[in-house]
Amino acid sequence: MDDAGTVIAFWVLSAATISSAAATAAVRNLIHAVVLLVVSFMGVAGLYITLSADFVAVTQILIYAGAISVLMVFAIVLTPRGERGNAEGFLRLPALLLAGLVAVTLIFVAVDTEWVISDRPGFQETASVIGEALLDRYVLPFEIASVLLLVAMLGAIVLVRPDSAMEDE
Amino acid sequence: MSVGLEHYLVVGAVLFAVGLYLALAKRNFVGVLMGIELMFNAVNLTFVSFSRFAESPNPLDGHVFVIFVITVSAAEAATALALAVLLYRVKDTISVDEIDMLRW
Prior knowledge:
The complex is a heterodimer of chains A (169) and B (104).
Chain A: H1 4-26, H2 30-50, H3 54-77, H4 92-112, H5 127-135, H6 139-160
Helix pairs in contact in A: 1-2, 2-3
Chain B: H1 5-25, H2 29-53, H3 61-91
Helix pairs in contact in B: 1-2, 2-3
């Protein structure tokens, strides 16, 4: 990918994504952390567009930046006496060390390996091909995913039903 | 200057490390969940960049995998946040340091 627009978009989007993800770890207010996480999700969606993955980019914005961040805000406001801070626990230094080691290892592998690169151009249309693959080769995982979503929905409803927590007492 | 596969893989690696740090170090249950979602995002970015650049007879299979990962992570987020609300009702806290009900 050599055209100037894609290169500039890649650098701007990756800088925004990584800096807002790091800011999610750094800020001390939990709501601010969720907002910065949404910025990071949008940056990843932009990176998907530079990779000509338009369907995945739209799904990313709908599910991550829309639904999951709203769920997180719900979980925060439904626990009013819980801790609102975003502080680290006693695992802070080991976690920092492990994350640094993982980053160094993954970057070394990514840069050092001789990947088999194809020189095909970007995808022209992705949504119809993904749809055909979902209903053809991947039809069994597709059906299992629908059952998984149903079970997760039922589980969430049963867990937060008002009487279920108090029955045992 | 052109952008290739390695650039996207490095971005994915850094995102994964930040998510790992969040998931391990944060004291708040929602903070831990944010780290897990960031790790899902890093893996999805790696899937999509391999799907764009790598040699393959079915290059769009990477996108199908990403759709499945997004589905599973949505189910996981809904269940985990329901658990957070339930935990708050029982223990009056969502700090992972104070969840020690399985310890004897």
